[in-house]
Each structure stands twice: as structure tokens, then as C-alpha cells.
Structure to design on (199 residues):
């Protein structure tokens, strides 16, 4: 990774995908969201985006989030021929790419696909009512319909969300899928879970 590159935050990306897919409304994933593709640093002087050029405001440069898709870890990232210079720079394809994530059942790609499948299978997650649930500082929990709850830890500290009984359908830490919850759901930093509630 280049010294000027922002830190990769895969746990935050996974949590953001869970939040997006489990809230009410139509979820929109932009290319790269499904693998947690990070922005690529770009000197504002090299911006190709017309907005900062027109306004003179470098902070409005949208180019860092328009990096080419990283399909593989090879040079060119499966997006272009090795050695070719694309319109915008390619990030660290060895750290984040589709091919590697297809092979890893714990990857952000698999989590995204499984969340989409869960939403498609569960009426609560497609059209169920939203109700905010009690949660400690740094966490957000809500109920969808009668049978599902979502709890997210949006902090760097451990949290415990109370009042939940059921089974973890999907968690950002995939080792927790299927875990039984008996009143309290402990979440590490930037972790989340979708819970099928006991009725």
C-alpha cells in the first residue's frame, strides 16, 4: 500500500453493506461496494472530475471513489492490460479483488450476496415496518417486521445490545452465523448481526 493511501477499513465496509441492505427502502450498491473496494488517493491536481476544476474546490473531487474495478490481483487488476494506464489509478488489487473474495466464504462479497439472498427470502426485510430498539451509545438496533432485528456496533469499543432472543441469521463475523442469542448480543468494534427473533 502506498504511504499516502487511506487505511483499509474492511470491517466498516462490511457493516455499511449490512446497514444498507437491512434498512427500509431500496438498497443501491455501487460497483465495488460488494467487495469493500476502498477509495484510491489522488492528488487534486490530477483530478479529471470536472466539478473541482469548475468550482476550484478540491474537496469535491469524486475521482478517488471512481477507481477501476479490481477483478483480480494481477497487474492491471483484470480491468486492463498489464502496463496500461487507465483513466484513474488502480488501488491495491492484491488486498481487495473479486477473484480472491469469490474463493473466501468469509469475504465481503459472500456477505453481500448472502444479505441480498436473506432480504429476498424474508418479507420482514423487504417490507416490514421499522422500529428503533434500545441500544448503548455507539450502537444502533432496529426491528424489521415481527420476526427480525438488526444490531450494529458503529464504534471502536465493544457493546452489548439487550432485549434480543433468537438466532443470528447473518453476522459480519461469519463464524457467528446460527449463534443462539438469549437476551444479549455482544458485538465487537464495527460488527453487526441480523437476528431471527423468537416468536
Amino acid at each position: 500500500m502506498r504511504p499516502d493511501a487511506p487505511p483499509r477499513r474492511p470491517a466498516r465496509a462490511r457493516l455499511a453493506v449490512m446497514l444498507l441492505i437491512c434498512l427500509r427502502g431500496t438498497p443501491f450498491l455501487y460497483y465495488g461496494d460488494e467487495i469493500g473496494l476502498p477509495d484510491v488517493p489522488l492528488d487534486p491536481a490530477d483530478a479529471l472530475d470536472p466539478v473541482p476544476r469548475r468550482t476550484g474546490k478540491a474537496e469535491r473531487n469524486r475521482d478517488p471513489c471512481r477507481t477501476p474495478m479490481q477483478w483480480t490481483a494481477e497487474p492491471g487488476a483484470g480491468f486492463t492490460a498489464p502496463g496500461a494506464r487507465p483513466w484513474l489509478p488502480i488501488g491495491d488489487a492484491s488486498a481487495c479483488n473479486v477473484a480472491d473474495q469469490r474463493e473466501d466464504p468469509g469475504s465481503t462479497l459472500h456477505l453481500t450476496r448472502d444479505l441480498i439472498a436473506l432480504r429476498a427470502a424474508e418479507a420482514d426485510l423487504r417490507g416490514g415496518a421499522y422500529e428503533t430498539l434500545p441500544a448503548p451509545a455507539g450502537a444502533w438496533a432496529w426491528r424489521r417486521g415481527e420476526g427480525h432485528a438488526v444490531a450494529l456496533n458503529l464504534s471502536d469499543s465493544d457493546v452489548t445490545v439487550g432485549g434480543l432472543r433468537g438466532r443470528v441469521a447473518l453476522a459480519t463475523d461469519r463464524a457467528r452465523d446460527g449463534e443462539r442469542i438469549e437476551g444479549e448480543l455482544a458485538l465487537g468494534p464495527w460488527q453487526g448481526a441480523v437476528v431471527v427473533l423468537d416468536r
Remarks:
- The chain has two domains: 10-118, 128-197.
